[in-house]
Write a structure and sequence with these properties.
DNA-binding; elongated
């Protein structure tokens, strides 16, 4: 086993968490009570961190200690067309499918998306805690985290972390969707 592997995981976790938090290297070091150079070395995968230093950084970044060694994977949820719990009307040809309930104290913005084929829209990470929800209306598209987007067809739903780089790429002309950006 490569003895440097845990340091690489810790380095990547610290960089990603600090990036999502929007905090500078200086601010995190100050909050943790460690030298900026120490944090810089840890984020580059060098140095020999003590448990106390790592613990202080976890407190400063508001993460669990285990998240440094096994970072949580971003939650991605996909509901395909004709999936999910549908409720039907007795009086008309109408059904409603709940795809995401609003958590308390959340902020949501709703967008209608119209996009043509091309290189796609790569979005930089938004505020920490942002989740984007998309229901594809027409066409076909690759949507989701930049590293692992999902191909959607009309009626499909996806939820993914908006606080990581993400993609919306139309694969057919006249691709439209409804996008909800939620920040808690």
């Amino acid at each position: 086993m490569d003895s440097k592997a845990p340091l690489d995981v810790i380095a990547a976790s610290l960089r990603a968490t600090r990036g999502r938090s929007g905090l500078s290297l200086t601010e995190v070091a100050k909050r943790a009570g460690v030298a900026k150079s120490t944090l810089s070395q840890l984020e580059s995968g060098t140095g020999n961190p003590s448990v106390e230093t790592l613990w202080a950084l976890c407190v400063a970044l508001e993460i669990q200690f285990a998240d440094l060694l096994e970072p949580p994977r971003p939650k991605v949820q996909v509901i395909r067309a004709n999936e999910g719990p549908a409720i039907y009307s007795e009086r008309s040809d109408y059904s409603a499918t709940l795809v995401a309930a609003s958590p308390p104290h959340a902020r949501r913005d709703l967008y209608r998306i119209v996009v043509a084929p091309g290189p796609g829209r790569e979005s930089q990470p938004h505020m920490p805690g942002t989740v984007e929800h998309v229901v594809l209306s027409t066409g076909r598209a690759l949507i989701g985290p930049l590293e692992d987007p999902v191909e959607l067809h009309p009626g499909d739903y996806i939820a993914y972390p908006g606080d990581v780089a993400h993609l919306f790429k139309a694969l057919e002309p006249n691709t439209t969707a409804v996008l909800v950006s939620e920040t808690s």
